[in-house]
């Protein structure tokens, strides 16, 4: 399943890299950071902000995905025990709905 | 054209039978070749026992012909030889971006070396040996555990060595410990050996760094603990996260090239490993902020110790002084008391 990257505008994540729960956040970051999304001049540019917590912090990793059009999806990765597949599924579900809406409008 | 032999020049006495001819030829060929006499060493000592495998290719648990085995060896060597390592997370960098980042990194490190040389310090120039490389995380994790958890003791190391052939005490009948050539031999303790494998088999994922080794990871390896070089490298690679200012556009216009900047946006600082200790980002910043490298740290320590010693001296002196003053005042009081009655007596008499 591919993520509709063109519908994503911003991505915020906070995690402690020393915890195992941060794994999906870091892997998802790798999916969003591509040569197409990084340059600010690119039409599919995603504004990515990563906050790395100190090693001793027990805060659970979270991520917020802002879609084009203002919709925001906040996932508490640590508390829900999400894995990378679940995250991709949720994000792409929302993204595909937005894509469909846009195509219907046009 | 090869020279032709004329039949007339052949020896006249042609042997009557083949047998005779063979004897004659062997006798003639053996005559000039004199076998040198065996040396005294050879006669008194027999040769040392011969190992059944080349010393550089001991039997190993992991097949040395595979790339992953050689990667494991190179990673263990890397971990052993670089006391300062910084780990980065990198995502989808293009080869051009890597090349540009490496170029900037090399330039910045060279400047640090030049600065150290200009200040007249004796630190060696290590800039050419500082490398950033991507790693295979699963193999690197095994290499970490082998380096940190597998400590073959001296006895097993000694038993793995072949007896010296030049040592006169070595008997011909001396048995080679690893002569069996079996992979199970506990005397084999190299990184690919079965002993090493068994020693770290049960500690999978137990190393401090193993939760970090997820996804694409790059490692900056510095062969000595040099906070200055680390600071220079971090100011190039992750200036925002590490809090070290990046070179300005005026000072280094190449650094602000879009290729470099786009590459750097895909790199995150994760952690550092300094002298076998794992440091997170804040501690890494602290290490990088040590001024003047190890010499600076030593001078800081010296000043701290000196100030401490002087304060200790004043404290101890203070106690002695207060005792002295107390006793002095007491003495003066006693003297006055002694004087007092005598003076009264003298007045009365």
From TrEMBL, chain A:
The keyword Ribosomal protein applies. Gene3D superfamilies: Glutaredoxin. InterPro entries: Ribosomal_mL53. Its main location: mitochondrion. It is found in: Mitochondrion. Keywords: Mitochondrion, Ribonucleoprotein, Ribosomal protein. The keyword Cell division does not apply. GO terms for cellular component: mitochondrion; ribonucleoprotein complex; ribosome. Belongs to the mitochondrion-specific ribosomal protein mL53 family. This is Large ribosomal subunit protein mL53. It comes from Penicillium olsonii.
UniProtKB/TrEMBL annotation, chain B:
Residues 28-65, 156-188 are annotated as: Disordered. Belongs to the universal ribosomal protein uL10 family. Residues 28-39 have a biased composition (Low complexity). It comes from Penicillium olsonii. This is Uncharacterized protein.
């Amino acid at each position: 399943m591919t993520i509709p990257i063109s519908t994503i505008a911003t991505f915020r994540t906070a995690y402690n890299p020393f915890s195992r729960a941060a794994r999906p956040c870091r892997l998802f970051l790798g999916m969003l950071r591509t040569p197409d999304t990084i340059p600010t001049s690119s039409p599919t540019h995603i504004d990515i902000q990563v906050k790395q917590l100190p090693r001793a912090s027990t805060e659970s990793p979270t991520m917020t995905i802002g879609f084009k059009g203002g919709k925001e999806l906040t996932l508490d990765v640590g508390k829900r025990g999400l894995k990378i597949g679940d995250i991709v599924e949720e994000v792409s579900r929302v993204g595909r709905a937005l894509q469909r809406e846009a195509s219907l409008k046009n | 054209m090869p020279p032709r032999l004329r039949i007339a020049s052949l020896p006249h006495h042609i042997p009557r039978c083949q047998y005779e001819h063979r004897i004659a030829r062997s006798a003639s060929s053996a005559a000039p070749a004199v076998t040198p006499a065996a040396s005294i060493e050879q006669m008194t000592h027999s040769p040392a026992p011969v190992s059944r495998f080349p010393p550089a290719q001991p039997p190993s648990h992991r097949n040395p012909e595979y790339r992953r085995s050689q990667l494991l060896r190179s990673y263990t060597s890397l971990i052993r030889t670089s006391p300062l390592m910084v780990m980065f997370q990198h995502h989808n960098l293009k080869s051009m971006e890597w090349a540009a980042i490496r170029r900037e990194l090399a330039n910045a490190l060279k400047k640090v070396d030049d600065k150290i040389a200009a200040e007249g310090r004796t630190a060696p120039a290590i800039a050419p040996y500082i490398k950033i490389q991507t790693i295979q995380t699963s193999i690197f994790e095994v290499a970490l555990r082998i380096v940190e958890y597998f400590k073959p003791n001296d006895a097993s190391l000694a038993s793995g060595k072949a007896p010296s052939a030049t040592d006169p005490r070595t008997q011909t009948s001396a048995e080679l410990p690893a002569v069996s050539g079996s992979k199970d031999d506990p005397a084999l303790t190299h990184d690919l050996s079965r002993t090493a494998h068994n020693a770290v088999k049960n500690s999978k994922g137990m190393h401090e760094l193993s939760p970090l080794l997820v996804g694409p990871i790059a490692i900056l390896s510095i062969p000595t603990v040099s906070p200055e070089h680390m600071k220079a490298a971090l100011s190039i690679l992750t200036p925002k996260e590490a809090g070290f200012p990046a070179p300005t556009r005026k000072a280094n216009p190449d650094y602000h090239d879009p290729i470099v900047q786009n590459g750097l946006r895909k790199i995150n600082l994760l952690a550092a490993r300094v002298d076998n200790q794992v440091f997170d980002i804040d501690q890494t910043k602290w290490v990088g902020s040590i001024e003047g490298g190890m010499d600076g740290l030593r001078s800081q320590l010296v000043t701290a110790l000196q100030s401490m010693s002087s304060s200790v001296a004043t404290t101890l002196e203070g106690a002695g002084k207060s005792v002295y003053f107390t006793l002095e005042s007491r003495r003066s009081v006693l003297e006055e008391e002694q004087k007092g009655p005598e003076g009264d007596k003298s007045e009365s008499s």
